[in-house]
Amino acid sequence: MIARIITVGFILLLLSYSIWWLWQRQPKPKVQETASTQIKQEKSREPEQNIEIFPKNFSILTKGTVKLEGKLSPNSYVLIYSNDTNSISKSEENGKFSGEIDLKDGLNLIGIIEYSADLKELSKKTLVYFAAAEDKKSGFGQIVYAGSVKNIFDNNFVISVTSGVDKNIKTTKSTTLEIPQDEEEATLSALDAVRVGDFAIATGEISQDTLTAKYFQIIREGKPQINMQVLPVKILSNVKNNALSASSITDSKITEFTLSKTAQILNSTNKLDIKQVEKNKIAIIVFTEEKNKKNVSLLYILP
Fold it and tell me: Tens digits of per-residue pLDDT, 181-200?
């Protein structure tokens, strides 16, 4: 009798353990992400320092001159630059700064670099704007995303924008498409011709972390980028035959620059003449490089 009780008890114990073991291996329900969790994850993927600025990044604006305003470190030099326009100013004691830029039709990439008083880089960011004539602006929506296509699923796309963050885009039957197609793709629908690695520009409205596109463009050749380069330097020579030499503040590398008649030469208060560019001055140079020639667009001389 005792042996039977022990046997039954052992079987019940074994059965209970088996049920518990199977329950432990059931798939656990996925915890639903809250909006705040998603925002934190989005920020954790953002490699660039946060910069307070208005108009906000990814805005659709009216083409023409736009005033950028923001807040950075106090008393820092703020360079705003693009392929078409340059502006440099010094932030106030409270960190506020402003500068004007000219926006052309379509996509505009705007770089911002903040330097300390001794020209150490404090922060750097690329802003993305889309500009249109006032009477056409509403047809593009309020938000623009631009970057390389990473994933494609039917009419849904994931692109990596300039800040390195992934953005979701959805096209609809009413989306205006501008997609290049070669001879082999002529029989495909326009969306089927989109390739991973293409540069995409999408404008529209945001809903549930996805941009529903009113306009969707693919650029395959000559992908948009800022061609301007920036270098804080110590000037090593006076200008002679529109040329000067300077050494990098960062690594002391010596570089030769060419000053054209259209180059902006500024200090904190005035426009300067080419004859006022003097040896041993500290400056910020914005330039383009073509055929091993560095052409100066802006030369800003510090006090």
Answer: 888 877 888 999 999 999 99
Q: Which CATH superfamily is domain 52-137 in?
A: Immunoglobulins (2.60.40.10)
| pTM of this structure | 0.80
Query: 193: phi > 0 → left, psi -120 to 50 → alpha, else beta; which?
Result: alpha
- Which of the following CATH numbers is that of domain 229-301: 2.60.40.10, 2.40.50.140, 3.40.50.970, 2.40.50.320? 2.40.50.320
Backbone angles phi, psi at 10, to 5 degrees: -65, -40
Q: What CA–CA distance (Å, rounded) separates 260 from 243?
A: 9
Q: Using alpha carbons only, give the angle 152, 154, 155 rounded to the nearest 5 degrees.
A: 90
Tell me the CA distances in angstroms from 141 to 94, 149, 220, one per residue in order. 34, 21, 24
Phi, psi of 90 (to 5 degrees): -120, 135
In three-state secondary structure terms, 156 is: strand
* CATH number assigned to the domain covering 141-219: 2.40.50.140
Q: Are residues 61 and 55 in contact, defined by beta-carbon separation less than 8 angstroms? A: yes
Cβ-contact 29, 200 below 8 angstroms: no
Tokens encoding 225: 């980028």
